[in-house]
């Protein structure tokens, strides 16, 4: 009787397009004249991308959509069509290799998906058909089928729970595979059908379900079921997410259930959630693209210059067509412009290696393989959780080294989210320290900082308060020990499970005070009171918690028939709803507790008469039945119900700081990052946490921009906020005048500012005013923020968190942001930031699932950023620069050679060398460098966070280093070419008087090139493991062996035996040897000088470190036995 | 329960190996002044030593270069540049002051001749030159337009390179008081051993008949005065394995190049010499030059001062840089110590 059935069935109601009607069991219902079978998709899951016959075209199409691949394809086609200097093989082979490898990888992955799909789609399921259970293949399930699922089976599609084998019409489900939450959740049957036990009964059901069209939100569902009983009077019930069993979830603790399929196949929520996240691109990637454009320009201009000079040179007929090299008739007849264009294309082909296809492959490999080092890191492994770091995308490894802003959640991120009930306040009296003395009346009062209000409340009040704690929650009791959730607390024989740790702490706390919640059966809550009597309450309604309202209520009925509403929530959301009770005392107590960093909740109640309740119930039912805007309507009803409450007390729960949270925050800040705390918690609690984790310190000036400050001016809130903003801005900017030097945010001794802003004030600032001057205030706020070293944003709604991140992200400087959080409320911010980090925390796995990287604890952020991020940035930046460098000095001699071969696009190197240069001779060393290099040891990086500043603002990929590398490449190219050129002044290089030809010339240049480029990496490598030795020396040895081998045989498939014995002949010449040695030395000398003269970051910093800390005894950094660098001195002077 | 958990923990726990933890034992070199400065000095000294050796070696090589293009009317070969002259011969006299110890190498040198032109460089068929009978009759497309003659007969050897083979010839005489004696020129071993023995082969018929029959059905290159099988009377130096031909086929790297012509095993004694040139090869049309060069050879090859000078410069730069760095190093080291104090 507690649920009032509202008949809102109206046959003539217009059918909305955005809803679907399902006939349960495909039985036509009497009410509907026209039985319109709708077409729904079948239950086949297709996660695979390709089929056997479309794999090749589709995969190729997708691969060539990448701009780089397309470029290489064009080059290849040009080579095939036009008569070009190099054979199509030279660029076709690498491209082919890359395409094939990618295709094989993707094909294999798709094959695995096909296999998985197949096994899922063909798996047997049991469907009720004609009163009997029939076995079907999973893919054959249709919308409207009634499916039977047994314990520990996975639901084959999204089902509405009709009946369960459990008495109370519930079933338990884990959604571990959907959202990672391993706790069991309770789902409810439709009340009218929960009585059905057998197939026959279920099959006799005649009902329709009207529900929204599929949408991906796992936690949202609205629908309505119309049950037609024999009396022909249809009954309508609302359906919510608590009735919807999702595909992919597993049935637990329940023998079997019957459910009707409503979403199938690709329309299930799981399938809809498969869509990938939007791609985030790192700054390094953007830099690569810029450099690529530069190189493309170099390529095009080289080709243009070559073409132009060719035609200028050819204007002399003696050069155009000497008698020994006469043209074919065909060549003569081609239009001059076409000829020029072909020449241009030929040059493009000849120089195309300047943009190497292998760079993309290497960068991808480096990122992919490199991310394993993050996963493997045992320092980021949490013993308690049994898990380490997780990399969801490897594209952002280097971005971790570029973070400028860190946005962190408080609860569960900075703190443990491991709640402990510390104290409470009942009717204005404070209770504390009861944990050790919890006997019947053992609540001892204690002198705290707010001692003036200490005392004892009446027994009646006490018990009411404790009952409220026991009743007002959504905690479940687990009888079994099988649960693997993290939220369990063994309370005698009870394990409490809840999605919110606060609630567990409160119920646990009530238990220690004598009131034990024993669980719920059939909507009846059992409580054991102090006299060990069992009290039974009927649970009438739950006004569930939501982050906007920030409170929850329950309506319960005592055995005696009295109806109570208990409400608990944040003080700010309770106090406006309260009209009686000792508000002042309790408010004081709440504030005191908050200052101690405790999380407070207020508890209030009111008694309802039956009439009042009936009214409420009707309203609620109406709201719940709504198909549209249900959430909003519900919220409105809740708001109306929760009024005129009587405040009975407050609770304070402690949330411990995570270990090393303070150290981590400090390290991040000295690494030059601004740390912002964004929390939904209230200001005092959040501030206490900020002090505890040393975000704020005592000599920091705190600026407040909160509703508290502007409350007096209720009418003109906006104006006041703006006024305040201007005022703060003045303070900050004025201060700036005195300390304009301290722009570096470094070790300055100037006044530091901290800013506290709350959600309400923020929304006022962000809200556009009538005259649209919001931008102005936003700018002001940003300027203030940029001057503040620490910023705390409290009372934030999830979307506001994302808004803040977005605001900072979109400023002029486009700083790199990182957001870290653990709960569902952090997801939006995690997705918004450049790098999103999820903590594998207690509030489920949503943040971790949506993040780019997931780590177990906040402290791991330190190593992730300072060590891994720094190293990956250095590695990839060097890798990219090196790639451009090595291809520039590869191609530049080829360009110079054009001046000496009549601009005829004659390749300098043999085709094999052209092809293998990037594939075999110089690829592995740089890849391994990109994986293993530690220019500064990990220990050092962790110890000295300020090293992180060295690479801030994409320092290694700015124009200066890029130009340095480019000039180095050009210089080397010049040295290679002209070294060989002057040597060839006399092409007699051996003592037998024989002369060498053009291929020997190219081979000398190429040998110098391969050695120089590899030795350049030798100079750059600071961390020589055996792997580095192996690949670098191995590559060089391979080059030599390959050259012997390649020149040692007359290759039957080659038309031209250009390289026959060229390499071996070259090595018989002492002059060639001496030239190679000389040219390598000359090429490397400038780089060596620059290296010696510039600062070595590790040692230089170490010295600085010593200087700064010479007073401190803690300095135990071993002084390096090597002599101090002159390097350092230069950098300090300059 | 707890055991289950422990197993899970163990399963997920990353391996504690040096590799996975990025703690592989590593050598961390450090370019400190202490290492680099001595290296610079040492390198400088070694380079200067090598440079001096190379420089003097190169200077000891004696080279005599004679230009005989005949562009200027004063030149003795000027008359051969006229269009209508056939089998033109001209003489150039030169004097040797110092003994050129044997072997002395005789080169011809061409200027502004682009053997490295792309279209020219590919115009050959290595299969044909290797003696492959199939390609002898059907030369590669690369040879076009020197693949077949007007009657579609295959050209052997085909291609632009072969067609433009250098065909001036030289005879060297020693002039002894108006008495002239021929200096013996050795043409053996002027090409790469591997080219002569492996890469180039004459086509061979199964019945072991002579070279002329093997070339049956082919025509000579357009510019050649006689077919390939009549290049020399010596069967070891005829056809595709004619060493002059092989030398020519190794295309030069730069537009000014020299190719080995003959070897004078006994060297040249001081005195007057005379080169008799059969002037056939036209170079004026492309502003070219022709030279004939006599050169002794050292262990480092022909005369080329570049390498020695380059080594000397590089060595000196290295030492100078070393000195500058040393000064800077000493100066700033003092400051650093003061600063730390």
Automatic annotation (TrEMBL), chain A:
Indicate where this protein resides in the cell: Cell membrane; Early endosome; Endoplasmic reticulum membrane; Membrane
What does the record say about its membrane topology?
A: Multi-pass membrane protein
Q: Give the principal location in a single coarse category.
A: membrane
Alphabetically ordered keywords of this record: ATP-binding, Cell membrane, Endoplasmic reticulum, Endosome, Lipid transport, Magnesium, Membrane, Metal-binding, Nucleotide-binding, Phosphoprotein, Translocase, Transmembrane, Transmembrane helix, Transport
* Superkingdom in the source lineage: Eukaryota
Residue limits of the P-type ATPase C-terminal domain? 848-1095
Q: Where are the transmembrane segments?
A: 64-82, 88-104, 290-313, 344-363, 882-900, 912-932, 962-984, 996-1018, 1030-1054, 1060-1085
Gene Ontology BP term (one) = phospholipid translocation
Residues that bind ATP, according to the entry?
409-411, 503, 545, 568, 599, 679-681, 795, 801, 825-826
Binding of Mg(2+), residues? 409, 411, 822, 826
Q: Name one Pfam family in it.
A: PhoLip_ATPase_C
Q: Which reaction does it catalyse?
A: a 1,2-diacyl-sn-glycero-3-phosphoethanolamine(out) + ATP + H2O = a 1,2-diacyl-sn-glycero-3-phosphoethanolamine(in) + ADP + phosphate + H(+); ATP + H2O + phospholipidSide 1 = ADP + phosphate + phospholipidSide 2; a 1,2-diacyl-sn-glycero-3-phospho-L-serine(out) + ATP + H2O = a 1,2-diacyl-sn-glycero-3-phospho-L-serine(in) + ADP + phosphate + H(+)
**What are the boundaries of the signal sequence?**
none
Give the protein's cofactors.
Mg(2+)
Query: Of which family is this protein a member?
Result: Belongs to the cation transport ATPase (P-type) (TC 3.A.3) family. Type IV subfamily.
PANTHER family linked to this entry: PHOSPHOLIPID-TRANSPORTING ATPASE IG, PROBABLE PHOSPHOLIPID-TRANSPORTING ATPASE
List the protein's name.
Answer: Phospholipid-transporting ATPase
| Organism name | Chiloscyllium punctatum (Brownbanded bambooshark)
């Amino acid at each position: 009787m507690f649920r009032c059935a509202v008949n809102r069935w109206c046959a003539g109601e217009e059918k909305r397009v955005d809803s679907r009607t399902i006939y349960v069991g495909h039985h036509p219902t009497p009410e509907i004249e026209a039985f319109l079978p709708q077409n729904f998709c079948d239950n086949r899951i297709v996660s695979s991308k390709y089929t056997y016959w479309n794999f090749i075209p589709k995969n190729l199409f997708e691969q060539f959509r990448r701009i780089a691949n397309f470029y290489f394809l064009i080059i290849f086609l040009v080579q095939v069509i036009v008569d070009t200097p190099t054979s199509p093989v030279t660029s076709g082979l690498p491209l082919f290799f890359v395409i094939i490898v990618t295709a094989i990888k993707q094909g294999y992955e798709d094959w695995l998906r096909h296999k998985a799909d197949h096994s899922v789609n063909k798996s047997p399921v049991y469907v009720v058909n004609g009163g009997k259970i029939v076995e079907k293949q999973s893919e054959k399930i249709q919308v409207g089928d009634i499916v039977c699922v047994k314990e520990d089976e996975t639901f084959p599609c999204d089902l509405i729970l009709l009946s369960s084998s459990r008495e109370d019409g519930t079933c338990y489900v884990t959604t571990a595979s959907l959202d990672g939450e391993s706790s069991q959740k309770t789902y409810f049957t439709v009340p009218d059908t929960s009585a059905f036990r057998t197939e026959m009964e279920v099959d006799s059901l005649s009902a329709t379900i009207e529900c929204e069209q599929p949408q991906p939100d796992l936690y949202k569902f609205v629908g309505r079921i119309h049950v037609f009983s024999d009396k022909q009077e249809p009954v309508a019930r609302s359906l919510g997410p608590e009735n919807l069993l999702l595909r992919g979830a597993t049935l637990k603790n329940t023998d079997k259930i019957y459910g009707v399929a409503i979403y199938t196949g690709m329309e299930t929520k799981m399938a809809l959630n498969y869509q990938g996240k939007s791609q985030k691109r790192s700054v390094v990637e953007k830099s690569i693209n810029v450099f690529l454009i530069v190189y493309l320009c170099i390529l095009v201009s080289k080709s243009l210059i070559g073409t132009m000079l060719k035609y200028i040179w050819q204007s002399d007929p003696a050069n155009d067509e000497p008698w020994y090299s006469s043209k074919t008739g065909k060549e003569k007849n081609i239009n001059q412009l076409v000829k020029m264009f072909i020449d241009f294309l030929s040059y493009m082909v000849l120089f195309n290696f300047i943009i190497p296809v292998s760079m993309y492959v290497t960068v991808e490999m480096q990122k992919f393989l490199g991310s394993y080092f993050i996963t493997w890191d045992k320092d980021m492994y949490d013993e308690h959780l049994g898990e380490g770091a997780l990399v969801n995308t490897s594209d952002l490894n280097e971005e971790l080294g570029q973070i400028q802003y860190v946005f962190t959640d408080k609860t569960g991120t900075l703190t443990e989210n491991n709640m402990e009930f510390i104290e409470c306040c009942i009717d204005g009296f404070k209770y504390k320290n009861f944990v050790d003395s919890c006997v019947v009346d053992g609540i001892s009062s204690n002198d705290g900082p707010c001692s003036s209000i200490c005392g004892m409340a009446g027994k009646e009040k006490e018990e009411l308060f404790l009952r409220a704690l026991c009743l007002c929650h959504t905690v479940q009791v687990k009888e079994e020990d099988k649960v693997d959730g993290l939220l369990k607390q063994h309370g005698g024989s009870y394990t409490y499970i809840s999605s919110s740790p606060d609630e567990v702490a409160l119920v646990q706390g009530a238990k220690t005070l004598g009131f034990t919640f024993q669980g719920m059966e059939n909507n009846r809550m059992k409580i054991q009171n102090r006299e060990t009597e069992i009290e039974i309450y009927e649970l009438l309604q739950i006004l569930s918690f939501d982050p906007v309202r920030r409170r929850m209520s329950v309506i319960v009925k005592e055995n005696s028939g009295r109806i109570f509403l208990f409400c608990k929530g944040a003080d700010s959301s309770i106090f406006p709803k309260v009209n009686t009770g000792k508000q002042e005392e309790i408010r004081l107590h709440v504030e005191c507790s908050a200052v101690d960093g405790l999380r407070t909740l207020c508890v209030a109640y009111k008694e309802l008469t039956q009439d009042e309740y009936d009214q409420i119930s009707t309203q609620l039912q109406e709201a719940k039945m709504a198909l549209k805007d249900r959430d909003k309507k519900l919220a409105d009803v809740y708001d109306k119900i929760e009024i005129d409450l009587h405040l009975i007390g407050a609770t304070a729960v402690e949330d411990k700081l995570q270990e090393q949270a303070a150290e981590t925050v400090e390290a991040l800040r000295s690494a030059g990052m601004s740390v912002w705390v964004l929390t939904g918690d209230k200001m005092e609690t959040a501030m206490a946490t900020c002090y505890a984790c040393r975000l704020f310190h005592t000599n920091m000036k705190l600026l407040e921009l909160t509703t508290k400050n502007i409350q007096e001016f209720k009418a003109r809130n906006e104006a006041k906020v703006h006024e305040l903003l201007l005022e703060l801005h003045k303070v900050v900017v004025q201060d700036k005048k005195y300390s304009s030097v301290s722009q570096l945010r470094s070790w300055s001794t100037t006044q530091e500012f901290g800013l506290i802003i709350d959600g309400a004030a923020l929304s006022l600032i962000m809200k556009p005013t009538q005259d649209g001057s919001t931008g102005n205030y936003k700018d002001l706020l940003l300027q203030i923020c940029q001057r503040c070293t620490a910023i705390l944003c409290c009372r934030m709604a999830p979307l506001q968190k994302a808004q803040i991140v977005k605001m900072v992200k979109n400023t002029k400087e486009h700083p790199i942001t990182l957001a870290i959080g653990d709960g569902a409320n952090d997801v939006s911010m995690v997705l918004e930031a450049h790098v999103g980090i999820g903590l594998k925390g207690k509030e489920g796995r949503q943040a971790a699932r949506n993040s780019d990287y997931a780590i177990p604890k906040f402290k791991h952020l330190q190593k992730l950023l300072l060590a891994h991020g720094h190293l990956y940035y250095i590695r990839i930046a060097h890798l990219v620069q090196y790639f451009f460098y090595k291809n520039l000095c590869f191609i530049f001699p080829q360009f110079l050679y054009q001046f000496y071969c009549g601009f005829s696009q004659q390749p300098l190197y043999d085709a094999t060398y052209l092809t293998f240069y990037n594939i075999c001779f110089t690829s592995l060393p740089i890849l391994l460098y990109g994986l293993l290099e530690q220019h500064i040891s990990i220990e050092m990086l962790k110890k000295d966070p300020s090293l992180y500043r060295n690479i801030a603002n994409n320092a290694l990929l700015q124009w200066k280093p890029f130009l340095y590398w480019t000039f180095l490449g050009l210089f080397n190219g010049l040295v290679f070419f002209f070294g060989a050129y002057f040597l060839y002044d006399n092409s007699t290089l051996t003592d037998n008087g024989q002369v060498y030809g053009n291929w020997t010339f190219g081979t000398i240049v190429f040998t110098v090139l391969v050695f120089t480029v590899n030795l350049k990496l030798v100079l750059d490598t600071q961390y020589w493991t055996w792997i580095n030795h192996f690949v670098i020396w191995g590559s060089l040895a391979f080059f030599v062996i390959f050259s012997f081998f390649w020149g040692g045989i007359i290759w039957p498939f080659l038309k031209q035996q250009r390289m026959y014995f060229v390499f071996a002949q070259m090595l018989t010449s002492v002059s060639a040897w001496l030239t190679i040695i000389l040219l390598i030395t000359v090429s490397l000398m400038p780089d060596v000088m620059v290296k010696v003269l510039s600062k070595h970051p590790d040692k230089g910093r170490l010295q600085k470190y010593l200087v700064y800390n010479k007073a401190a005894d803690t300095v135990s950094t071993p002084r390096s036995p090597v002599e101090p660098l002159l390097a350092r001195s230069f950098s300090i002077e300059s | 329960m707890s055991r289950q958990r422990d197993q899970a923990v163990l399963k997920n726990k990353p391996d504690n190996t040096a590799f996975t933890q990025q703690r592989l034992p590593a050598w961390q070199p450090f370019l400190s002044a202490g290492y680099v400065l001595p290296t610079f000095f040492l390198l400088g000294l070694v380079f200067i030593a090598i440079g001096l050796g190379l420089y003097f070696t190169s200077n000891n090589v004696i080279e005599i270069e004679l230009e005989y293009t005949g562009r200027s009317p004063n030149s003795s070969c000027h008359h051969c540049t006229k269009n209508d002259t056939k089998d033109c011969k001209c003489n150039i006299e030169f004097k040797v002051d110092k003994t050129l110890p044997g072997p002395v190498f005789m080169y011809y040198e061409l200027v502004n001749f682009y053997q490295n032109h792309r279209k020219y460089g590919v115009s050959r068929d290595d299969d044909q030159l290797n003696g492959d009978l199939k390609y002898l009759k059907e030369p590669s497309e690369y040879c076009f337009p020197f693949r077949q003659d007007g009657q579609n007969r295959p050209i052997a050897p085909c291609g632009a390179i072969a067609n433009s083979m250098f065909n001036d010839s030289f005879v060297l005489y020693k002039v002894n008081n108006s008495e002239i004696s021929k200096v013996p020129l050795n043409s053996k071993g002027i090409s790469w051993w591997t080219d002569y023995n492996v890469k180039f082969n004459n086509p061979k018929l199964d019945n072991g008949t002579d070279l002329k029959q093997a070339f049956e059905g082919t025509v000579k290159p357009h510019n050649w005065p006689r077919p390939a099988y009549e290049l020399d009377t010596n069967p070891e130096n005829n056809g595709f394995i004619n060493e002059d031909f092989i030398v020519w086929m190794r295309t030069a790297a730069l537009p000014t190049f020299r190719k080995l012509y003959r070897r004078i095993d006994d060297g040249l004694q001081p005195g007057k010499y005379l080169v008799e040139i059969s002037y056939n090869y036209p170079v004026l049309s492309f502003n070219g030059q022709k030279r004939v060069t006599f050169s002794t050879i050292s262990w480092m090859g022909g005369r080329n001062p570049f390498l020695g000078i380059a080594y000397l410069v590089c060595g000196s730069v290295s030492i100078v840089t070393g000195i500058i760095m040393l000064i800077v190093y000493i100066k700033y080291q003092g400051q650093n110590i003061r600063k730390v104090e």
